[in-house]
Design goal:
The protein is mainly β. It has strands spanning 6-13, 20-28, 31-36, 41-51, 67-74, 81-88, 92-97, 103-113. Strands 1-2-3-4-8-7-6-5 form an eight-stranded antiparallel β-sheet, with no helix packed on it. 25% of the residues are buried.
């Protein structure tokens, strides 16, 4: 069964190419990605833990500015379609449902310059072999 969770965009300067471009943010249970729409540079995050008891979001300092966003999504815990807080840093990505407080913490895993997409069905595609 595929899953759709967080799929949104944030326009800012790309950390890799430096161009003002949409950064495509996709998060499912198995992985989260931030992909530059201009150069394809992709930061991949893997799950660290999930929690419904945590208040707030994790925002450790990193090399780049932290993006604090709001996006609509269907919560994978309570099933309600509604607002989610999304915090993206250079070493972490956090999602939190405003309805039930379900929080999903991801940690940075690798940087990939090219394409490593999560498709619209929530399936993770493997990067091409070097």
């Amino acid at each position: 069964m595929s899953e759709q969770f967080i799929f949104t965009r944030y326009r800012t300067d790309c950390y890799h190419c430096g161009e003002d471009a949409d950064q495509i943010i996709k998060a499912v249970s198995a992985q989260a990605q931030v992909i530059c729409s201009n150069c394809g540079a992709t930061r991949i995050f893997i799950p660290r833990f999930e929690n419904t008891e945590v208040v707030g979001v994790c925002t450790p300092l990193g090399r780049y500015d932290i993006w604090t966003l709001e996006t609509g999504a269907r919560c994978k815990n309570c099933g309600v379609e509604g607002a989610h807080d999304l915090v993206v840093g250079s070493n972490h990505l956090t999602t939190r449902c405003r309805n039930c407080g379900y929080t999903h913490f991801y940690r940075f895993n690798l940087e990939y310059i090219g394409q490593c997409p999560i498709d619209e069905e929530g399936e993770v595609s493997a990067p091409p072999a070097p």
